[in-house]
């Protein structure tokens, strides 16, 4: 069951197919989704507005997604923004590295749509719920 509260999500994902599928799923859940293919495009987008959450791919063409997560978690404007890292790596070390960089959640790709929905619901939940 989708959350009826419409949120704005910025999806930064290098793989066009995964980006389109993820954007489609997020829109089906009732969210406004903006997607870009590179870290620099995402950073530029963030200078204009702030979404309710970020979803960042691990292997961006112009930077490592974990480095971008780290950069955004240390920026006053974006530090409190919920971030999910998308990665094909299921290794515990990679997951831990993402959390250490500042990610709030980690989703292994390709993903089960129901897992995306559950993780997104937690990511967007108000603090303390």
TrEMBL record:
Quote the InterPro entries the UniProt record gives: Bact_response_regulator, CheY-like_superfamily, Sig_transdc_resp-reg_receiver
Which GO biological process entries does UniProt record here?
Answer: phosphorelay signal transduction system
Q: Which domain of life is it from?
A: Bacteria
Q: Where is the Response regulatory domain?
A: 8-124
UniProt cross-references to Pfam families, sorted A to Z: Response_reg (PF00072)
Q: Which UniProt keywords apply?
A: Phosphoprotein
Output the PANTHER family linked to this UniProt entry.
CHEY SUBFAMILY, STRESS RESPONSE REGULATOR PROTEIN 1
Can you say what this protein is called? Transcriptional regulatory protein AfsQ1
- Its source organism is Botrimarina colliarenosi
